[in-house]
Give the backbone structure.
Amino acid sequence: MVYMNNYEFTVSLKMFGTTLQGRISGMRHFTEVCVKLADAPPGTPVVLDFSCIKHVTGSWINSMIVPFFKWAAQTENDVFPIFYNVDKEWLDEFRLVAQWNHQCFLIARASSFPPKQVQIVGFLESAQRISLHAVLAEGEVTGAELNRRRAEKIGATAWNNRLKDLYLKRLVCREKRGRKHVYFTLFKEIEENGRQLSKTASQEFSQAKGFSSGKNQPSSTVQATG
């Protein structure tokens, strides 16, 4: 089942039954989900809803979710996956697959979009984490702006590469405005590795890392766990 609320597409995975297991099933489900999302415009959030699912295995995650993220990041698709209602008993499987494949998955307990809080499952390098904090603190930002605001002498190209890494991991969105790419998040709160950040704390983190105050301010509270 695929349906659209506001501006996100939602795929209910219960159409595949209550047990998601095995490499062959995962490959088949990957193909079917991609077909169902063929009409999703670039830049669209895509929710895969695990409601009513009783069991998920690592082999299914590896053969369905991993290629799905690669498909989502392709230029002609450019959608942003988020997983709803993943049971906490499956988190270790998601985490192992994410780390093995150098991916990050966004997971939330929610029934509508956008969720109040999103959890990052996977591994972020230190530079990527600092860049994510910057995006959270600023609300939206470009590499050139980070180059101007940060005390350390890191060029705009280097910042753009870090932001692009987050974009390819589907953790931030990107919009072309004139000749520049602007990066931003879709969610009010993000949790990564158990650390919680408010809007103020995220700004303080950026200032401690060498950012000066910018004109852009986040429009909502941010919670990051890292």
User: Anything to note?
Assistant: The domain at 126-208 is CATH 1.10.10.10 (Arc Repressor Mutant, subunit A). The chain has two domains: 2-122, 126-208. The longest strand covers residues 8-12. The helical segments are 23-36, 58-73, 91-100, 126-138, 143-149, 156-168, 199-208.
